[in-house]
Structures are given as C-alpha cells and as structure tokens.
Amino acid sequence: MKSFNEIYEKVYKESNTTLEQARNKATNGMLLIIFIILMVGTIFSVITKSFLLIFMALLIIALYIAFSRNRRNYTKLFKEKVIRTFVKEYSSTLEYLPSKGIGKLSYIKGEFERPDRFFSEDLITGTLEDGNRISMSEVISEIESRDSDGNVEYLTIFYGLFAEIKLNKTVLANIKIRKNSFTLIKPKDKIEMDSSEFEKVFNVYGTNPIITMQLLTADVMQMLIDFKEQNRFTPEITINENNMYIRFNTGEVFEANMLKKALDYDTLLKYYNIINFTLELTEKILKNIKEI
Predict the structure, then answer these.
(1) What is the pLDDT of residue 36?
(2) What is the largest CA-CA distance in the chain?
C-alpha cells in the first residue's frame, strides 16, 4: 500500500492541468450566470419592457444548462481521474464504482438506526489480501416524520461514509462502539473499558465483556482516539459474528468542490485517512480474534 504523498504526487502530475481546465470552465460559467442575473435585476428596476425580460430569462436558462453540463463533466472527470486512481493506487485489490452503493439491508445490519429512506453511491469494494471482503460507500439515512396534519418530511440522521467488512473469522459476541453521549440510565450491556481517555470519547456495549476487552486492546483504543482527534469526526463500529460495520459522519464525500482546487490536499488526505483507518482497524481486529 502506497503512502498518501506517493499517490498524491502521481495524480497531480497526471491530471492536475486537465482537472483545473475543466473546473475553470465550469466556474466561469457560474460567474457569468451570476453577473447576468445581477444585470437583469438592475434592468428590471429601470425598464419593464417584457420582450427584454423574456430575452434575458431565456439567456439565463441557456447559460444554466451549459453550466450544469460543464459541472457534470467536471464531476465525472474528478471521480475518474482522482478518486478512482487514489483507490487503485492504494490497493490493486480495490475497485471504485461511482454509480453503485451499499444496500440498505447492509446498513440495517450495522444496528445504527433503521432508515425509512436510504441513498447510496460511490462504492469502493474488493477483497483484501487476507481474504476479507470490504465494501464502503457514501450513504444518506433518513427517518420519516409526520406532523399533526399528516404532512410528511424526512430528517437526515446520518450522512457520511459507511463500510461493511466480511471477516473470515467469527466473533462470538455482539459489540457496539458508539460516540459518547450522556444518559442518566446506564444500559445493562454497557461495558466499562480500562481507559479513561477512551471512555471520554466512546461508549462500548456488548454481549460478552471478556471478548470485548480482548478485541479492544490498548492499541486499538488508542487508534480510535487518534483518528478522532486528527480527523475531527468519530467512527462508530459494530462487530457481530463475522461482520464488522463502520460509519463516519463526514457529510458529502468523493465529490468535486467547485470552490476548491481539484486536487485540494486536505480534502484528499481526509479520504485517504478514512480508507486507511478502515483497513488498518480490520487488520488489528483480525489479529486479536486469532489470539482469542
């Protein structure tokens, strides 16, 4: 597996010029639309001739269509040149499928919440060197809410990256690691860990305290703490028999940001860190399973 800087330099040399040209083309179209809208507003405040307003409205629509096309082209190019290359360079066993995603059933099995509406795209999938199958993608989980008049709205509960790992070893326990939240009533399945620093950030629940302690060793707990501190969002994990589920409440991922450089270093480093953390955590958990 290559380091982030090795992959970044390769992508930069191969694609930066092409990507920036595509981004500038889309951005310039957006600025032109804003300028014309301001101009129309100014004209409207002085002249009310209908034919001029109709002409300007049609011009804005035409420019918006052109801008939308340029933006779609840039987004497609970004995913092909940047995300796909990053994934492939990180590990030749992984594949990036931008139009596909993880299924709703897999997310439900992670035991986070049961969504009423579920969206997923930007799938990364493959078999790791030790035979474990991994799938991860951006997901949006929403629950339905009704007011007293029966009107329906959907509330976003989770928006970020979700991973499912099929372990080739079985854990005879159900273990949940969640971000720490205050509650007056202590759940019966809550497990007290031997790290006060870890307990400030995470709550652990499980059906077998002994196995849970054997899996969540000091180095695993420190890995979770370090990731949270370095990336500013908290991973949540479920381990159940031969499956492990991880989610990161990142918001939108793997999308081109028109307001940033195509190869924005910090953005791509965040994506790399998430993928790297998921695979390294899987490796550590499997190592501990073997030792139980």
Answers:
(1) 56
(2) 81
